[in-house]
Each structure stands twice: as C-alpha cells, then as structure tokens.
Amino acid sequence: MATATRAAAARAALLLSLVLALALRASGAGADCHFPAIFNFGDSNSDTGGLSAAFGAAPPPNGRTFFGVPSGRYCDGRLVIDFIAESLGIPYLSAYLNSIGTNFSQGANFATAGSSIRRQNTSLFLSGFSPISLDVQSWEFEQFINRSQYVYNNKGGVYRLLLPKAEYFSQALYTFDIGQNDITSSYFANKTTEETEGIIADLMERLTSVIQSVISRGGRYFWIHNTGPLGCLPYALVHRPDLDAPMDAAGCSIAYNKVAQLFNLRLKETVASLRKMHPDAAFTYVDVYTAKYRLISQAKKLGFDDPLLTCCGHGGRYNFDVNIGCGGKAQVNGTWVVVGNSCNDPSKRVSWDGVHFTEAANKFVFDQIVAGALSDPPVALRQACHSRGH
Ligand SMILES: *[C@@H]1O[C@H](CO)[C@@H](O)[C@H](O)[C@H]1NC(C)=O
Ligand SMILES: *[C@@H]1O[C@H](CO)[C@@H](O)[C@H](O)[C@H]1NC(C)=O
Ligand SMILES: *[C@@H]1O[C@H](CO)[C@@H](O)[C@H](O)[C@H]1NC(C)=O
Ligand SMILES: *[C@@H]1O[C@H](CO)[C@@H](O)[C@H](O)[C@H]1NC(C)=O
Ligand SMILES: *[C@@H]1O[C@H](CO)[C@@H](O)[C@H](O)[C@H]1NC(C)=O
Questions:
Q1: In a domain? residue 310
Q2: Residue 329: beta bridge partners?
Q3: Is 353 in the active site?
Q4: Where are the beta strands (DSSP E) in 20-170?
Q5: Contact, 359 vs 78, CB < 8 A?
Q6: Using CA atoms, how far apart are residues 26 and 386, in angstroms rounded to an integer?
Q7: ∠249-302-327 over CA atoms, to 5°?
Q8: Each residue's pLDDT tens digit, 129-175
Q9: Closest residue by CA, ligand 2 atom 14
Q10: N or C: which end of the chain has fewer CB within 10 A?
C-alpha cells in the first residue's frame, strides 16, 4: 500500500514537472529580458523622493542605514523598488517630481507617499494623503514621454545623457505598488468594512484604465505588486475597525487583513483579464502580501525582534504615536526636541516607522519575490517579459 502510494506520488511529481516544463517553455521562460528602464507607479512603498520634492523632505533619521542622509524614502535605507533596480542593473530611480540632480535615462518614478488609486476628496494638509493619485501619475507619465522625447530629439547635448531613448518605453518594465492608501483612507474616514470592500470594484476599473493607457503609449511588460497585510502595521492597529475583536496569532487586525486579501483576490483577477485582453503584453502579479506576512508571523525565527514594534517612533505598545512620527518633535520642558528617534539596530526590526518597513524587511521581501516563487505566472524578475497569456 505504502509502495503503491509512493509510486503514485512519484508519477504525480513527474507529471507535475513535465507540465511545469511545458508551461515554462510555452511562456518562453529561460532567457533574460534586459529591461533598459523601469517606470514605477505607486505610494510610499516605492516613493524614492516624489512627496519629499514637493511637500517637505522626509526628515532624519530616514535614510540613516544606507544613504546616510534622508533620501526621500520613508525608510532607513532601500525600498523593494531599489532592490529591483539594483538587480536589473539599473540606477535607483529618480522621482519625476524632483527637479534637482535627477537622471531619467533609465526610468522614472511617479510614486508619491500617500498616493491612492482613487482621488482623495480632501487635502494632504487635512488627511495626510497625497493628491498625486494614480490618474495624476498617469498624466505625469504621458507628459514625461512627450516632453522627454521632444527634448531628447530637439535639444541633444546633455539631455541625451539624462532622458530615455524612445525605444525604452516599449522595452521597459512598468512596476505598480498601489492600493494600500485606498483601504486605509476609507477606514480612517470611519467607513465600515462593507463600505471599504465596496470600493474595490471601482479601484480595479481605475487601475485597469491606467494600465491600458500605458499600453497605448507602448508599455508591454508589467510587474504588479499586490497590497500587504495592512492589519499588521502599527498605524492601522491603533485605528482598526475591529478594536473589540481579538487579533490573529501574529497580533494583526483580522478585519484589515481580510479587506487587503479581498483587494488582492480582485487584483489577481484584474491582472488575469488584462492578460487576456492584451496577449502581446506580459503581466506578472506579485504576491508581496505573503512575503510580508511570512516575515511578520515568523519574525523571531528569521532573526528579527518584535515585528510590531517600530524602530523609529515614540511611545506606546508599538513605539508609535500618530502625532509624533519618525524624526518628529515634541515639547519637553518648553523646548522642541526630536523624540521620534531611531532604534540602535534597524536591521533587527521589521517596522521602520509604523507605516513602512525597514531596509532589512524590504530586502527580505525582495528576496522572496525575485525568483518568481510568489508570482503569477511564476517567472523571475529578470524574465518578467515572458509572462504572456496563452
Ligand atoms: C470623491 O468624491 C467622488 C464624487 O462624489 C466619489 O465618486 C469618490 O468615490 C470620492 N472619493 C473618495 C476617496 O472618497
Ligand atoms: C502627447 O502626445 C500625444 C501624441 O502627439 C497626444 O495625443 C497627447 O495629447 C500628448 N499628451 C500630453 C500630456 O501632452
Ligand atoms: C545618467 O545615468 C546614465 C546611466 O543610467 C549614465 O550613462 C549617464 O551618464 C548619466 N547622466 C549624467 C549626465 O551623468
Ligand atoms: C472617526 O471616529 C473617531 C472616534 O469616534 C473620531 O474621533 C474621528 O474624528 C472620526 N474621524 C472622521 C474622519 O470622521
Ligand atoms: C524637565 O524638567 C524637570 C524639572 O526640572 C526635570 O526633572 C526633568 O528631568 C526634565 N525632563 C527632561 C526630559 O529633560
């Protein structure tokens, strides 16, 4: 009996590897893609200086681990998008909104911290959410193409060393990481879980139309992150809709994570239908949720401290205070002093500031996704030009 079972299992394994090999061959996997550029859309998970350029720089100690100074990132060091750029041999992306010291010859970053897919009907000064919603990012992209090509072709000189070649727009990898702020802004506005889930269909329509506009301008290769387990982030935990309900085993809000999971389910379906509509384009759906939840739920085993305790913050269960962020000041005995200080060893922490991950956590997430283990279809980053429909 045991032998028969083992033989059946061996046959099944052989069959599975044959099917996988055929699927890989059909998808053309194997050859590297040589993306010459990356164009990124998103929120603070991938902002490399956009919000800082316009609305005030992210203060120290942001940037302390890798850049040594604040770099426009809400992190002690590099973000997942930085590791993606590094691994493709592309320099860190300049923020489109940054007017000083930028170099767009191998891509541009339209992401800003606080961005959502939908427009916020409020001001950044009131809500903290960015006015640079995904539709605005797509207008910026359209202007970027038109104007960069005009300048590249008509001005020449140094502009040829600062702007992308025309063919890069169809050869580039287009990366997306957005949606987190649509969910949190809904909960922060005291909407119910039902109301919050109710916006997801609209989010998918808007995301689809932005991706289609990128396709209409020549984009072919898409790498789309899903949203993380938001219910494990201190800023969500202090304002969770299920304050009276128990947390899950990792200490995360069950309600928040369920909405994030529903968003991800719909996103995966949306990416699949884009793949059907555009058989000549390649779409990779990347499950960063699983990578982040793995890190949070197994933090100790992976060599990290309490994953819910922020490195850079001030006070309370999570070392997080909504009114005093990382680098934030408070009045102590009549004088303003920085009280949102960094922990000594950010490499041991998962949460940087209660909203964003540390560089060490970002590296973990990148390592989990780079080879395609969490992707649909399961292609590696370097081969993401092969994620075509069949
Ligand atoms: C903003 O208002 C418009 C029009 O009422 C509405 O359709 C949209 O859902 C609102 N957006 C948000 C983020 O609440
Ligand atoms: C960019 O150029 C295209 C083609 O010439 C034009 O249709 C479009 O309106 C332009 N977009 C912007 C934002 O200038
Ligand atoms: C911009 O970066 C590219 C590499 O991506 C480099 O070849 C080029 O020289 C840089 N431009 C300037 C003006 O330094
Ligand atoms: C949400 O509810 C809390 C608690 O009742 C209240 O303090 C806060 O002002 C409300 N926020 C909004 C945006 O209505
Ligand atoms: C504030 O002043 C009081 C009285 O002088 C002193 O005991 C306390 O240590 C001071 N607090 C800080 C944080 O300096």
A1: no
A2: 338
A3: yes
A4: 38-42, 107-109
A5: yes
A6: 9
A7: 85
A8: 999 999 999 999 999 999 999 999 999 999 999 999 999 999 999 99
A9: 143
A10: N
The domain total for the chain is 1
Q: What tokens were used for 226?
A: 């899903």
Q: What's the distance, CA 95 to chain centroid? A: 15
Mutate to test the pocket of ligand 1, among 43, 116, 119, 205 (most ligand atoms within 8 A of CB): 119
The strand pairing partners of 173, in sequence order, are 38, 221
The verdict on residue 142 lying in a domain is: yes
Contacts of 366 (CB under 8 A, 6+ apart): 80, 83, 84, 87
In sequence order, the 6+-apart residues with CB closer than 8 A to the CB of 112 are 43, 44, 47, 50, 51, 54, 95, 97, 130, 132, 137
Q: Would residue 212 count as lying in a domain?
A: yes
Of the listed ligands, the closest to the CA of 140 is 2
Q: DSSP secondary-structure letter at 295?
A: H
Instruction: Give the Cα separation of 92 and 78 in Å (integer).
Output: 9
Give the tens place of pLDDT for each residue, 40-66. 999 999 999 999 999 999 999 999 999
**Helix, strand counts (H, E) of the chain:** 13, 8
- The residues facing 331 across adjacent strands are 336
User: Which CATH number goes with the domain that contains 87?
Assistant: 3.40.50
Low-confidence ranges of the chain (pLDDT < 50): 1-4, 21-22, 25-26, 28, 390
Looking at residue 231, its amino acid is: G
Q: Name the closest-CA residue to atom 6, ligand 3.
A: 161
On whether residue 280 sits in a domain, the answer given is yes
Can you tell me which atom of ligand 1 is nearest the CA of 202?
A: 9
Task: Give the Cα separation of 129 and 119 in Å (integer).
Answer: 10
Contact 369, 379 (CB under 8 A): no
Range of the domain at 217: 35-303+357-386
Rounded Cα gap, residues 381 and 214, in angstroms: 20
- 378 exposed, middle or buried (CB, 10 Å; 0-12, 13-18, 19+)? middle
